[in-house]
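Supplementary Note 2. Why include the ligand at all?

Several targets in our set were suspected to adopt different conformations when bound, so apo predictions alone were not considered sufficient. For every target with a known small-molecule partner we therefore ran a joint prediction. The input for zinc ion is given below.
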Amino acid sequence: VAVPPAAYTALREKLGQIHDLDRARAVLAWDSRTMMPAGGAEVRAEQLATLEGVRHDLLVSDEIGRLLEELRSYEEGLPADSDEASLVRVSRRDRDKELRVPASLRSAIARAKSLGEHAWKEARARSDFDSFVPYLERNVELKLRYAECFDAEHVYDPLLDDFEPGMKTVEVASLLCDLKEAVAPLAAAIAERAEAVDDSCMHGHFPAADQEGLLVEIARDLPLPPGTWRLDHTAHPFANAFATTDVRITTRYDERRLGTALFAMLHEAGHGLYESGISPSLERTPLCRPVSLGLHESQSRLWENAVGRSRAFWRRFFPKVQSAFPERFAHLDAEDVYRAASAVRPSLIRVEADEVTYDLHVILRFELEQEILQERLKVRDLPDAWNARVMDYLGLAVPRDADGVLQDVHWAEGLFGYFPTYSLGNVIAAQIGKAAHAAMPDLDARLEAGELHSLQDWLQEHVHRHGRKFTPAETVARAVGGPVDVEPYVRYLRAKYGELYGL
Ligand code: ZN
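The joint prediction is reproduced in token form.
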């Protein structure tokens, strides 16, 4: 093996510094959401902005530009799937994107994002969409200017690319359209037979302390290596990682529902398992991250749904649930809880949605943000358009905007192009789950025996370890042998819910 040229060593050192700044930002952000007293917020925002500025300056510096130029022939002489060629290729793409957007526009977007988030909190608390309109209009205007910085075919392409690199609007639109055509009739058929699944055992009173004891026991069975993670609680569950050996997950306790904290924990653990599964050889490089939000979400949904809402999982963990809440579950068995945990109940709120109706929430957001960005729908007309679609797709009347168009923070922060990655995650999770089952025909028996690491080992080998070395499309192809395809997901939903609801 040839010794890498000095320019490569120098580039890797610079990129290591950028990575350190990224992870330091992540620590500050994690702290502000879990531990920080409210008084810290203002100064913390300055600290985060400073780190972001230093990081930006380093990435666009002439020195990194020169090193990347110098390394062109070195890169061309290496196999494209080598760590070295991937590092040069991915860093060049990151830097080109960073350079396209003028600093003044970047800071305007950052400012509008924090103002928008603040205005949204107030507007949601009072269910007052009108007060939020100017902030949302500003975010739309800035994102249109952002999109203009890229010579894209579709205004949405550069926005989507920030979350799902390389994917085009037409591709995701066609995937979501196929998904809607399959899911909407399934949800409607289930609604006719809603009483077929009794989920009353998941509702009642479950003291947070008892839930936490149960969660910690289940978390210990997850394949996160001891000494590399911690679990905290926050109002909005999330996962982050500061190293492949330092993963942070959070959950939220709802004393009226047993599922909320448990499934949030499994979801965030899925994100954390992806971060912890990246090859240690990529540590302190820009390759040491999940490749896209769609892939990231595929891992969280796999652990939340394909594992957490499976018969095998409940056969394994039912005794623990029963001993945590003996009165509640005295006369029930694993099958009862499996069914209850999978119940389909259309709801107004995306984050509370069941597996079947979840994608309808995503699809309506994707459709509306398309219309807004193509200026076919005015921001002030959003609530009416939202409510009409919720009635159409979910059969529900929205009583107030706080439970409708104001429920999610994404648009308030200017995050257009983000929503479809949730459904992409579901779709990719089904493809990956199918591939893992094909490779390990006894996978369900292993999960039931508590050997959750069997699945993690396969995921690490076929997905996680690559980090950002390949594009999301290449990463999917390596894991499942083909492109992103909705068919396995639709087949999974039809089989599971057809059986549960006797369709
Ligand atoms: Zn997630």
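Residues 163 and 418 are 6 Å apart (CA to CA). Residues 267, 271, 297, 300 surround zinc ion (CB under 6 Å). Comparable summaries for the other entries are listed in the accompanying table.
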